[in-house]
Structure formats: C-alpha cells, structure tokens
Amino acid sequence: MECKFKDGDEVVMVNCGEADHxxxxxxxxxxxxxxxxxxxxxxxxxxxxxxxxxxCEFLIKNPE
Length: 64
What we know:
It is a single chain. The chain is mainly β. The chain has one domain (10-61). The protein has one helix and five strands. A three-stranded antiparallel sheet has the order 2-1-5. A hairpin with a 6-residue loop joins strand 3 (44-46) and strand 4 (53-55). The chain starts with 9 loop residues before the first strand and ends with a strand.
C-alpha cells in the first residue's frame, strides 16, 4: 500500500481539535506515513516538533 505522506511533506491539520489550536501551522512530516501494529487500519505519521504520531485522517498536504 502506498503511503499517504512522505518524509519532508508539508501538511496542515484539519477537522480535529488540534486543527483549531494550530490554525495556519504548517507541519513537516519526519517519517513516511505507516500503519502501526496496534492500529492496522489507522494510517499515522510522525510530525516534526509534535509529540507522538498523528492520524493521517486529519492531515492534508499544505495547499500553498
């Protein structure tokens, strides 16, 4: 399965509580997105300067 995001992609958060808190913040992916063993149906990615992984469901590539 192809990854939704690649290391170095610029993304923004949408449709979640964090998106309301980080309005306009552009995040950099620090890994390719992946499906963790514990959550095989949830694609996640690590973001630079963000603790833990983040669900790709709530990210889009930076539109700018």
